[in-house]
Amino acid sequence: MVPGVRLVVLGMQGAGKGTQCGRLSTHYVVPHISTGDMFRVAVKANTEAGQVLAKYMEKGELVPDDVTTEVVKDRLLQPDAAERGFILDGYPRTAPQAESLTQILSPEDVDLAIDLEIPRDMAVERLASRRVCSECGTIYSSLTHPDGTPCDLCGGIVKQRGDDTKEAIARRIDLYQRDTEPLFDHYMRRDMLVTIDALGGEDEVFGRLVRAIDYRRGTKR
Ligand code: AMP
After folding, report:
1. Nearest C-alpha to atom 5 of ligand 1 is from which residue?
2. What domains can you pick out in the chain, each with its CATH number?
3. Which of 68, 108, 114, 166 matches a 20 to 30 Å C-alpha distance to 217?
């Protein structure tokens, strides 16, 4: 079994983070921890907390840092993540979240923060055509899986995400550029940042990621 790894994956919405994080999680045998996915489960279950989260998510606003960090902390302390590591997708998204993550993991830290880099116009285009299985969350493109198509994996209905409207997409990307891009600095100062070109085929990008991660793990051992 490949030894575990602790990764933070940054990158503008539409860079392919969800897809690549899923593959990295299988490859390195560590849990894929996505705050967006965890929040969507709560929203779908229509719990009291889920109803509060939905208000932020529908508008493309960020959920408050303290709420988000509590959820992440609980998840990171579970044995699978604590023992083997994790692929953290969608967290941290703000400077206070990055500080909280460093504190949660202290005295250690993540092995690497990856910036999956994509130009804004390409991100907007990809998000507008993104379709997601309403049951298992598998991500498709509207070109191959228009609204109403059954999911290849579970047969669930494929549809557009509620927060992939034009306005919410623009809002989320604005927030990413304002709040999340400054985190590059946080990780660069700690010599933990690696930038990966997210353009190209899924396999090609995955190959770049694994090469970069294995190289950096090799040099740190
Ligand atoms: P995502 O699937 O990563 O695009 O996340 C969907 C939505 O969940 C975001 O637009 C936010 O409303 C919320 N969210 C996910 N992760 C975070 C986070 N780290 N901090 C605050 N809000 C978050």
Report:
1. 36
2. 6-118+166-219 (3.40.50.300), 120-159 (no CATH)
3. 68
